[in-house]
Amino acid sequence: MFLGIDVGTFESKGVLVDAGGVVLAQARRHHGIATPAPGHVEQDPESDWWADVCAISRDLLSGVDPREVAAVGVSAIGPCVVATDAAFTPLRPAILYGIDTRAGDQIRALTERLGVETIRSRSGNVLTSQSAGPKIAWLAEAEPEVWQAARWFMTSQSWLVAKLTGEVTIDHATAGYFHPLYDLAAGRWDVTGCEEFVDETRLPRIGWSSEIAGTVTDAAADVTGIPVGTPVIIGTTDAPAEAVGSGAVADGELMAMYGSSGYFIRVGDRIRTSEQLWAAPFVFEGTAVLAAGTSTAGTATRWIADLLGLTADTDEETFGRLIALAAESTPGARGVLAMPHFSGERTPFQDAASRAVVMGLGLEHTRADVARAFLEGVGHSIAAAIGAYAAEDAPIERVVAVGGATKNPFIIESVSAITGFDQHVVDSPGASLGDAFLAAFGVGAVSSAEDVRAWVGLRETVRADAVPVDALRRDHEDYLALYDAVAPLQRRRAE
Fold it and tell me: Is residue 27 part of a domain?
């Protein structure tokens, strides 16, 4: 059997599968985020991440012989910055991925000092809120006592794997987002020009996601129930694991992840860089990705549900109420247009100062119109990110969609209508299944990346003509124009 656990922004999920990909058990745990200051988004590694891994592993292994577990794979949100001492004790809460926008000053300073072309030639990317390097620089400047005490600067799954094995590792796919500290062409750390806030000895050893990082220690076995000596792979962040778990592993395939934020991975057979998209290695040696992301998706739907008083005892009931209310409106929300940039926006704008805007709201509009506008607004946000691939001449051959928001018809149908792509919504546990498959790959139980297709089912196909196309495409043009119109004002207000 193979154990896979993925730690997401609001929920951790785990699966136990056999060598044929049959899911034998599933488990999940919920946690939250902390926003201690504007632009700061954090989690506690011990109580949010490690506690989930321990509880989920014990849940999955109850009723089975744990000695049958051949390997373990773990993924988590990222790239995060986790500063720890030599014993892997976190010195402060973890700084999350691109939704945390605290390092704007450091991004500007590093860009000015190193130069855009130097950064791009080394990392294949410019610096954005998705870059981990500036967040380490922020620690050095804003919390020098933490920075000075830190033995390691890790990411989320690095820390979890270290807790399991005692080994400090990171996969190429995640290291590729530690710009400007990673040389994309050479596949190694390069901290030239950044020595004042980091040196290579404080960064994890780099390897491929399916490589064995180490084996479960006595201490980890005591709290997880995973037997001592069980192999643990290096792992990866949640999005690449989700791509594997959705079966998007071939050249030209796009994984669209509809989670608390949106994340998109186009798999390729070579490194290619882009001005709008993030270039990084993929999880298998010899593969690469162009990635895109939005800052909010599921978090925006939760916000509007709470605002409209639709919160219920369960997420299913809450979002069911939201969908039912939005259905009382019509495509285009009777002229209300929402730009749901609650935490800035990533692709294609890369604008940490951007914030949510509602346009066209009048006395004649209802709660249903507002609900639909925000759901369609999430669709516009996602469609704008996917549109960046065409702008960068990176053709998409097939789209597979995953994540909780795929169950929201107003979001996923608007994306297909605007982009013109059919979306194949997979029936899969997602990233945790990808973790289990990578673990199986790591110990030789499967021989090819494409073997994962046998592990993944199809729930439905959302067609590009499922809803009126013309109205949503006109609205999308207005959505892009709205951003262009308000962005200068929002940047000035953020100063």
Answer: yes
Identity of the residue numbered 59:
D
The Cβ of residue 433 has, within 10 Å, a number of other Cβ atoms equal to 31
CB neighbour burial string for 263-297, b if at least 16 within 10 angstroms, e if fewer = bbbbbbeebbbbebbbbbbbbbeebbbbbbbbbbb
Residue range 75-81: mean pLDDT, rounded: 96
DSSP code of 48?
A: I
Residues 62 and 27 in one domain: yes
Structural domain of residue 84, as residue ranges? 2-239
Q: Could you say which of 239, 264, 290 is where a domain stops?
A: 239
3-class DSSP state of 279:
strand
- The structure tokens listed for 208 are 């491929």
**Confidence band of 24 (pLDDT split at 50, 70, 90):** very high
Indicate whether 286 and 366 sit together in one domain: yes
Per-residue pLDDT, 111? 97
What tens digit of pLDDT does each residue of 401-454 get? 998 889 999 999 999 999 999 999 998 888 999 999 999 999 999 999 999 999
- Residues 46 and 241: their CA atoms lie apart, in Å, by 22
pLDDT confidence of residue 349: 93
The CATH number of the domain where 161 resides is what? 3.30.420.40
Q: Where are the beta strands (DSSP E) in 42-143?
A: 42-43, 71-76, 82-84, 94-95
Q: Are residues 213 and 265 in the same domain?
A: no
Alpha-carbon span 277 to 349, nearest angstrom: 10
Domain total in the chain: 2
